[in-house]
Amino acid sequence: MVEAVLIDLFSLPANLQNNIQGLLHNTLETIEKCSSIPAPFVYVMCCQRQGSEKNSEQESLLQALRDFQSLKTRLEVVHALTTAAALYNIKQRLDEKDLSIIKVILPTLRKDLMKVYIDHLFTAVYQFEFEVLQAVSDCENLQIAEPRSEGQTLPMQDVALIQSEIQMYLESLPSLKGELTILRSSLIPEDIFLHGFTTRTGGISYIPTLSSCNLFCSSKRRDPQIVVKENLRRLANAAGFNLETFHRVKVDHANAVCILGKTEPDNYDGIVTNQKGVTIAAPGADCIPMLFADPVRKACGAAHSGWKGTLLGVSMATVNAMVSEYGCNVKDILVVLGPSVGPCCYKLPHESAKEFHRIDPKCVRLFDSESPYIDIRRATRILLESGGILPENIQDDSVTDQNQNITFCTACHPDKFYSHFRDGTNFGTQIGFISIKD
């Protein structure tokens, strides 16, 4: 069932005011009479014009809307300078109301264009159907959603122009929740490595659980790839790395490691390199983003370690890759554990907790309960030390230095970090990143 209707008047010229009024009146009349819900949310998308032309158009639209009292509280006219700006503003309104099934009523010539905008600004969470802007008599059109067509019919140069328009608009948006903040470790030498851990501030993601510097997109979340890309662009500018040589692990919650420059696995939770100027990164939103640095051999690594990856030994798999590929001595490798869920908050079912209890009973609190508290950081440190990493070369602020303020509990600090455990399935993601300076 359609939850919202978007009427696209953006491309209609100002000299067609009477036509606009008639089209809008007929379309709204159909929505009012045929919708099976009391009144769907309706958004009328218009180009923002200048001077008397602008006033004339607005008056015409108001005249067309006055007769629709049942839609009054659910109808809104959105003016903007570009289609990207108008559609992004409407997306915010949809997200505020948690609406996902949208009918788009638009001129025939706008359909292929609109599909490109939608493909960039929305994710698979949303369902769209399209209808030609005219007086509609078929009431069923408001109930049955058509599948989105496959393939791209616009010339590639037109698609590129649309993408550029969207990027320019997103770049113009102010940062939310304060300035972009990067946490850095004093353990990793600044003269050799560029590195850091991100927090949730300084991006443009506006959905509460994703706000504001979300750095991961998924078909199951409402943050599209182009928004995450803009957040990452702002991070790259603030941190000083090149986005064109940025590589992030492809999370599988396992222990595979990618050797940068060799055949890339389909999925992997660790990545290593000795190439200068290449930035590698691992995400975390309760799972541990870990950074590895060898200042002697000038090699580095990043790994994502949740409870499964911890038990599977992804931390030592990353260390071993640095040793075998770049000749690193395990005693020279520095490891920093980033923001992650602490034993104060993290629980697992008893069966899974048994595996951590075998590593060290101190990794589990309330072991006899159905869902004991788990310390995945302690387990990680024990496994690293067992593999030859020196204790003094492991930074975990929760035990080594409270003043460093890197290994925060993500669940305990909603102002600073995202947390899957705390926020549920529509959670945001921070990252740890590292590169060897040129």
Explain what you see.
The chain has 438 residues and is of the alpha/beta class. A six-stranded mixed β-sheet has the order 9-10-13-12-14-17. Strands 3-2-1-4-5 form a five-stranded parallel β-sheet, with helices on one face. A five-stranded mixed β-sheet has the order 6-7-18-11-8. It contains eleven helices and 18 strands. It is 31% helix and 19% strand. Residues 135-150 have low confidence and may be disordered. The protein is elongated, with a radius of gyration of 26 Å. Helix 4 crosses helix 5 (156-172). A hairpin with a 7-residue loop joins strand 15 (364-365) and strand 16 (373-374).
Which key terms come to mind for this protein?
five-stranded parallel β-sheet, alpha/beta, six-stranded mixed β-sheet, 11 helices
Q: Point out poorly predicted stretches.
A: 135-150
Strand content: 15-25%
Question: Which sequence of strands runs across the widest sheet?
Answer: 9-10-13-12-14-17
Average predicted confidence as pLDDT: 89
Oligomeric state of this protein: single chain
Outline, from the CA principal axes?
A: elongated
Main β-sheet: number of strands, strand sense, barrel status? 6 strands, mixed
- Alpha-carbon distance between the two ends: 56 Å
Radius of gyration: 26 Å
